[in-house]
Amino acid sequence: MSEAQAVTLSYEDGTRAVELAREAVNSYVINGQREQPGSMREAFYARTGVFVRLESTRGRGSLRGCAGAYDTSEQLGHAIVDSAIAAASEDSCGSEIEPAELSNLNISVFIVEDTKLSNDPANEIRLGRHGVAIEGRGGAAWMYPTLPVEHNWSTFEYLDRTCRKAGLPHGAWEDDDVTVTLVDGPVFREREPEGSIERI
After folding, report:
1. Helix (H) / strand (E) containing 15
2. Beta bridge partner(s), residue 20
């Protein structure tokens, strides 16, 4: 991993990661302030990537925000806070999270344990486990690892949709001037807003 450290999180670490993301979102949305991680668990001092995803449970549900980075020199605890705030801001999905939405938000955290440049992503991707980052020709994009399972995408559809998000044509992931990085790690999420947390 570039500048990052491999890290392995326990269930307790993952639970605290989601709680910290929830605290950061609440503090930002209600008070406009950045939550400090406080006394961090040992794993949170590792310098590794993280993504925070916010989903509304109202009606049919919808993605309200997702932000993060798979390679960072920031300590995990601070990266969780910063990603949570970015996901809640208007820069993420076009509109900032409002206080009335907080009780209807499901929060999940994807913590990067390892990354791998892949020359054969179609065969190496594990759907539901690997996030994907694609870069080339001036474009870059990443996808959350649970998306293909949630939407019943094939491996090829997963890769093609990531290409499209990066402004690249379908199949560009097979070209030599486009890099595909597989991002590996667990996802911890609330079973229901502010409820118990599961590892997937």
Report:
1. helix 11-31
2. none
CA distances from residue 7 to 42, 117, 118 in whole angstroms, order as listed: 10, 18, 20
- Cβ-based neighbours of 29, under 8 Å, separated by 6 or more: 88, 96, 97, 98, 99, 101, 102
Q: At 66, list the tokens.
A: 């997702």
Question: What does 74-105 look like in DSSP terms, one character per residue?
Answer: SBHHHHHHHHHHHHHSHHHHSSPPPGGGGGGE
pLDDT tens over the chain, length 200 residues:
344 556 789 999 999 999 999 999 999 999 999 988 877 889 999 999 999 999 999 876 789 999 999 888 899 999 999 999 999 998 777 689 999 999 999 999 999 999 999 999 999 999 999 999 999 999 999 999 999 999 999 999 999 999 999 999 999 999 999 999 999 999 999 999 999 999 99
The residues pairing with 108 across neighbouring beta strands, listed in sequence order, are: 53, 189
Residue 123's CB is within 10 A of a number of other CB atoms, namely: 8
Q: Write phi, then psi, for 11 (nearest 5 degrees).
A: -60, -40
CA 198 to chain centre: 16
